Recover the amino acids of this structure.
């Protein structure tokens, strides 16, 4: 009798796992919930590249309910190949801001891959060794040096709250560098990434960190190429709770 009870309990566990799993087609509903066609295009292009990945139904719901397209595009990447406990989904769903939810989704969950048994998560294999990318045939990457500087915007950054600032670029000029300048008070960059003209996601970890008051942080995007960018997204906060809010000026160097 005890053996039968244990077997039944294991069966219930498997059913619970199956109920939580979703395919890339269900994850594509995140893309369909976006407001702008350009954002949907970026999202769907990514979904196609990870169509064999595991998705958690509860996490998909959190992504769909986010307020902004930039948050949803970040969210779908954070939940790819990850399974979440029900208490994690409940806690994250109760958070107020896209940035909070994305941070929690990125830090939480357990990496899984699709098992031959449909919907049942299994540990991911070790990642392949990194390879230096070859961009010689890519329309996003072009030869060129910095020929002009373009002021992309000035943003007053919130205190104690991480917010996302999205900068639309024309996608035709090659961007060589990004320069961040803080005015009035220090600014803390928690995350930065770009979407290329063809819809590729480009992480910019070198831009993260503190920019002191009246300070400047300048980063070359690629040592060999200029990159055609469609959008630049920066998540930032004013870390000093007393005094003026920091202002963040974003300037990009272009090939012409």
């Amino acid at each position: 009798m005890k053996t039968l009870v244990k077997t039944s309990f294991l069966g219930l566990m498997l059913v619970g796992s199956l109920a939580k799993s979703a395919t890339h087609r269900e994850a594509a509903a995140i893309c369909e919930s976006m407001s702008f066609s350009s954002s949907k295009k970026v999202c769907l292009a990514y979904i196609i590249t990870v169509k064999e990945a595991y998705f958690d139904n509860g996490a998909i719901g959190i992504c769909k309910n986010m307020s902004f397209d930039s948050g949803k595009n970040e969210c779908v990447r954070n939940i790819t190949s990850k399974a979440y406990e029900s208490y994690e989904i409940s806690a994250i769903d109760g958070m107020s801001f896209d940035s909070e939810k994305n941070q929690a989704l990125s830090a939480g969950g357990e990496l899984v891959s699709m098992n031959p048994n449909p919907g049942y998560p299994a540990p991911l294999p070790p990642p392949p060794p990194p390879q230096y990318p070859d961009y010689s045939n890519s329309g996003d990457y072009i030869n060129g040096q910095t020929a002009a500087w373009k002021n992309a915007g000035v943003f007053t950054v919130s205190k104690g709250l991480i917010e996302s600032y999205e900068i639309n670029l024309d996608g035709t000029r090659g961007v060589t560098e990004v320069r961040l300048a803080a005015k009035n008070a220090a600014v803390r960059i928690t995350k930065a990434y770009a979407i290329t003209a063809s819809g590729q996601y480009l992480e910019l970890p070198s831009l993260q960190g503190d920019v002191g008051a009246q300070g400047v942080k300048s980063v070359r995007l690629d040592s060999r190429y200029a990159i055609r960018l469609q959008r630049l997204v920066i998540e930032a906060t004013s870390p000093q709770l007393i005094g003026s809010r920091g202002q963040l000026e974003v300037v990009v160097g272009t090939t012409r």
About this structure: Residues 141-254 form a domain with the Jelly Rolls fold (CATH 2.60.120.1380). DSSP finds seven helices and 16 strands in the chain.
